[in-house]
Model the fold of this input.
Amino acid sequence: MKVLIVGSSGMVGSKILQKCIRDKKIKQITVIVRKHSHKNKKIKEIIHTNFLDFSSIKNKIKDIDVIFYCIGTYQGQVSKEEFIKITYKFFVQFLKVVNQTKSTFCLLSAQGANEESPFLFAKWKGACENYLLKSKIRDYYIVRPGYIHPENRKEVKSMFHYKIIEFFYPMLNKIMPKYVVSLDKLTSVMYKIIYDKPKQRIFSNKEILAY
Done:
């Protein structure tokens, strides 16, 4: 099986990458990166810098069996315009080059995703979902995690808001368990889905926890 990970350097994408490397059934892992960063022999790097135009690499990803799309950014770290560009515009342009008849597509979305939402994060995650649903891709899965607990990701925990949440996480997990998920649980479910091929296409945080 050949897998493509878009967003392989992020918190979720890098965890998916680790699972793919360990999986003997996966013969090739393609990642789209801005510069060389991987040395594992299973990984095929596609160096690409313009995420608003993927046409130049279309032929390099035409024989992919599974695509994990994990690109994202934190709302408070960038401007509104940059957030929309990274969250939605990158996704729209990427979807234009996907082999729509062959690939199983797994989209990392977010709890509360709704294009009608007044909240920036939920609105544009919802817009991504709707664009996927209107596309010709039929073998798709959408996961909507709540708060993703980063576990041992030291570089993520160094961010101020994660330091605060880290302190309150045990309490948060106890009083609102339906709204939090560990990074390992989320990525394990995303990974399991592409093998199980369930009839259900969209997974809320509660359903991720139960899967």
